[in-house]
Design brief:
With 318 residues, the chain is α/β, with parallel strands linked by helices. 25% of the residues lie in helices and 21% in strands. Helix 6 (224-236) links the parallel strand 9 and strand 10. Helix 2 packs parallel to helix 4. The longest helix is centred in the middle third of the chain and has 13 residues, at 154-166.
Length: 318
């Protein structure tokens, strides 16, 4: 349990930082050094005097003697560079859930290329790491793909613009609640929607708060924002549209998939990743009856979930 403000939260994998000796540090995937100071607290910050003594952050191999595999180099070349991701104290930085979502997109990259999307959108873009990574992955499709990114936090919208610019990319970035003001104009036009929603169970009054809190506060069972996203995504998605969403065990993904099945969507887990406290699932949804290359069938999701862990963590039956 972590104390934050006047409430306590079970953070699960969504931690803005992981504490190491009282200094906030970020965690990164693969063969890279996973611990260095969070850029939310710059060197010499008066609020964190110890930060001035810390080394400059860098995304580097743990040891020069450790060989870096060709596969890892290929993965790094197909995703946004952490060193080019902009930051702001009130914007959620890339963490385990961000990396899981990007890994899911990488795992499905060949199918995404074959899919040849024309319009892609990220709902809740945060730092811009995910939308930038998606644009890099689809780079071989050239200028035929256009990107949109939204975030309720105006600071996040600005940080995303800076991250895209640093990578030589472009997207239409809008500060809005989910896709308010866009969903009517873009209805039925988006071929790929990606979202790492606020999924942490919190008091309802924290949902939609200003600043960084909005990036994780998910309300009861972490489902308040998730349940608002689905009808918006349903309206935005084209007939061949795909939705990639991060969920936490506490969100009861089995129930989420059944709910979407009732709306005519098939689903499949693309990436499942366990952390110290919880399990993350990146689920892909598509309209049932429309072929999704990475899927075997509309019921393929059902056998993939550890039901006992869902019953243990949720008071709502699947």
């Amino acid at each position: 349990m972590v104390e934050f403000g006047t409430h306590q939260h079970m953070w699960g994998p969504r931690r803005v930082t992981k504490l190491l000796g009282g200094i906030p540090v970020l965690r990164f995937p693969g063969s890279f050094d996973r611990s260095y100071p969070a850029r939310s607290f710059p060197r010499g910050d008066a609020g964190h005097p110890a930060a001035s003594a810390l080394p400059e952050p860098s995304c580097r191999p743990v040891s020069s003697d450790v060989p870096i595999s060709e596969a890892l180099l290929m993965k790094v070349s197909r995703t946004a560079q952490i060193g080019l991701v902009s930051c702001h104290p009130e914007v959620y930085e890339p963490c385990d859930d961000s990396f899981a979502l990007v890994d899911a997109l990488l795992a499905d990259r060949e199918h995404l290329i074959e899919h040849r999307p024309r319009l892609c959108m990220e709902l809740g873009c945060g730092s811009g790491y995910v939308i930038s990574s998606l644009a890099i992955m689809l780079g071989e499709l050239g200028c035929g793909v256009n990107y949109f990114a939204t975030d309720i936090n105006p600071d996040a919208a600005q940080v995303t613009r800076e991250t895209l610019e640093a990578h030589g990319l472009h997207a239409e970035v809008i500060s809005t609640d989910i896709a308010s003001g866009l969903q009517k104009r873009l209805a039925g036009m988006i071929d790929v929607v990606v979202v790492n929603p606020p999924y942490v169970p919190t008091p309802e009054e924290e949902v939609g708060c200003k600043g960084i809190t909005a990036s994780w506060a998910g309300g009861e069972n972490g489902r308040t924002v998730i349940d608002r996203i689905f009808p918006v995504a349903d309206e935005l998605l084209s007939e061949k549209g795909w939705l990639y969403m991060v969920t936490l065990t506490a969100n009861n993904p089995t129930q989420v998939c059944r709910m979407m099945k009732e709306k005519g969507y098939a689903s499949r887990i693309i990436v499942q990743r366990s952390t110290e406290e919880e399990s993350l699932h990146v689920i892909k949804f598509w309209r049932d009856g429309v072929i999704a290359n990475s899927a075997e069938g509309s019921d393929s999701w059902l056998s993939q979930f550890p039901f006992k862990s869902f019953w243990r963590s949720s008071g709502t039956s699947a």
